Amino acid sequence: MKLTIDIDDKYSEPSITIQSNEWSEELEEIAAMIKGKKKKRLFGVEKEQTVLLEPHEIDYIYAEQRKVYACIGNRDIEIRRKLYEVEEMLASYGFMRFSKSVIGNLNHIARFELSFNGNLCAYFHSGNKEYITRKFVVPIKDQLQMGGDSDDR
Prior knowledge:
The chain is built from three helices and ten strands, in the order αβββββαβββββα. By secondary structure, the protein is an alpha+beta fold. A hairpin with a 5-residue loop joins strand 8 and strand 9. The longest helix is centred in the C-terminal third of the chain and has 14 residues, at 134-147.
């Protein structure tokens, strides 16, 4: 990678331009570092204990009976936040809406299967599966084609 820094009085504020032929994980890390993005983690409740959840460990998050849960492998951990709050918080970690009640981690998807009703079934590396409703299939497909990670296990 080539780095060029030009310091001159003609500039009123710092400006950064990155030129590349394609988006990469390295560019994503640089952009996050420049923006000063802090690592976000969630608090969950499991067996009356508060646990710290790392976004990269979560397969999907779902709402059921007015509660929100994070699915990590075979564990379902309650998160005491609204689903839309969690969605906004985790969007930069590769999470997208699967349905009205589910957001999923695109980086954990191993494969897809098409249902007869037009929905997709997403199978995660952990063995979990979750359905993507037709409304959200195209945005997820577009995001994956733009460069979603597939081997971040």
